[in-house]
Design a protein that fits this description.
By secondary structure, this protein is an alpha/beta fold. Helices cover 39% and strands 12% of the residues. It contains 16 helices and 14 strands. A 5-stranded mixed β-sheet has the order 2-8-7-6-5, with helices on both faces. A 3-stranded antiparallel β-sheet has the order 9-12-11. Strands 1-10 form a two-stranded parallel sheet.
């Protein structure tokens, strides 16, 4: 008989998690003002809020942490990370930061000015927040196929070259901070960008004299999809594909909490020594000295090992096949999600699952609360709450997609947990006709409101 697939790791340590009662969850989510971020971790059974910093580190990473050099300046751990970045993505200059949004804050302090525009593929919340905080505009140039959840288009993270060139023609290059390519593209459903598209965007950028920045949180997953879906790459290693990808980037920001499989950490990498030197001032102001930047030596050691392990095919196949397994279970139950399955998460189409909840009552958030009540599963809304208000009109923005993200932590849950997630979602789906009202906002921050928003049930 055919040998079934098995994970490319074995378990050394476990952490107990507790089943709660429906009555407990009902009380807890009300006390949290129906914001899933506001729940305590011990009130959650399966935590799919994010895959950021929630994965299980390897034995090599834990061993490397014991060798961390905590010198304030010139730590050997800094040079370990510098070498790993050079070996894997090929950049000569880098600054460590405590996480990805810190990298954005430092770099954007150099490059983004009031009145600028930043075209790209569906900028994620912190990226857009840092752009709009500086009174600049994030311009979404993602391909239209990304808005059709049942379309099996293999590279829904791609940038539409016609949309991009229209922006480059409309604005003088002095007003375009850079082009941002998010690999994989989180907001469009963890969807990859093809090598062909990366190459074409870079060529267009050079034609107009614009820098290209990779938002690199899930770059290794993007390379995996290139290997599996793009002709000519099937026999290349993940590391070979990554090196080719980064030939077409001038800058990168990295939340190491994703594809470097650590609990904290990030960095910026540069081709330009001049931009690097400008950024060092902000790194010292916001993060720490340039050879630690908000990270301990042990954390830098763990990131260095994680960059190596995270760009190995066996690890990536295990990780992404678990996400595909959840997608296949939802297919069995007739539950719509952004297809094909993304690299780090399944993004459920809340407009199809809860068609009776009005858009202005936040269907994806409503679905997230119902899933938590069903069995203690925490997830994230990627819809109108996250889209925030228009910075000029202050009206709610309603994106074309209203998604509930089920982000799968790395090397953390078994497929038995995945079965619980799928069955719980099916139970909510089976009673969808009874869910006709959602929520209204009673408190919101002026920017990136979804982290601290407070809601009232209608």
């Amino acid at each position: 008989m055919k040998i079934p697939f098995a994970e490319s790791f074995r378990i050394k340590m476990v952490e107990p998690i507790r089943h709660s009662t429906y009555e407990e969850r009902e009380r807890w989510i009300k006390e949290a003002k129906y914001n899933l971020f506001a729940l305590r971790s011990d009130q959650v059974f399966i935590d799919l809020l994010t895959d950021s910093g929630t994965g299980a580190m390897s034995d090599r990473q834990w061993a490397a942490m014991m060798l961390g050099d905590e010198s304030y300046a010139g730590s050997s751990s800094y040079f370990n990370l510098k070498k790993a970045i050079k070996d894997i993505v090929g950049f000569d200059y880098f600054l460590p930061t405590h996480q990805g949004r810190a990298a954005e804050n430092v770099l954007f302090s150099v490059l983004v000015k009031e009145g600028d525009v930043v075209p790209g593929n569906s900028h994620f919340d912190t990226t857009k927040g840092h752009i709009e905080f500086r009174k600049a505009t994030a311009m979404d140039c993602t391909v239209d196929e990304a808005n059709e959840t049942q379309n099996e288009y293999p590279f829904k993270g791609n940038i539409d070259l016609n949309k991009l060139e229209a922006v480059l023609k409309k604005y003088p290059k002095e007003k375009i901070s850079f082009i941002c390519i998010t690999v994989t593209c989180n907001t469009s459903g963890g969807q990859p960008v093809s090598m062909e598209n990366i190459r074409d965007v870079y060529a267009l950028a050079k034609k107009y004299g614009i820098l290209v920045l990779f938002d690199s949180a899930r770059f290794a997953e993007n390379a995996y999809f290139i290997k599996k879906r793009e002709k000519g790459y099937e026999n290349k290693t993940i590391k070979e594909i990554v090196r080719e990808m980064y030939q077409y980037a001038d800058l990168m920001t990295m939340s190491a909490k994703k594809d470097a499989i650590v609990n904290i950490g990030g960095f910026i990498a540069f081709r330009s020594e001049e931009i690097y030197r400008q950024a060092t001032t902000f790194n010292i102001m916001f993060e720490g000295y340039i050879t630690y930047g908000g990270m301990s030596g042990r954390d830098m050691n763990a990131v260095a090992i994680g960059l190596d392990e995270g760009t190995e095919f066996d690890y990536l196949e295990t990780r992404i096949r678990q996400v595909e397994y959840l997608g296949a279970k939802l297919d069995e139950y007739g539950i719509s999600y952004q297809r094909p399955a993304g690299g780090h998460a399944i993004f459920v189409d809340a407009l199809k699952v809860l068609p009776k909840v009005p858009r202005e009552e936040f269907p994806a958030q409503t679905l997230g609360v119902e899933l938590y009540l069903e069995s203690g599963i925490r997830s994230t809304e990627i819809g109108a709450i996250l889209a925030d208000r228009d910075p000029v009109t202050r009206e709610n923005r309603y994106p074309k997609l209203e998604l509930l993200r089920l982000a799968i932590p790395r090397r953390t849950y078994t497929n038995n947990h995945i079965d619980v997630i799928a069955a719980s979602l099916k139970n909510v789906y089976d009673r969808r006709d009874t869910i006709t009202r959602g929520y209204k906002i009673t408190y919101e921050a002026p920017i990136m409101r979804h982290f601290t928003v407070e809601l009232e049930k209608l």
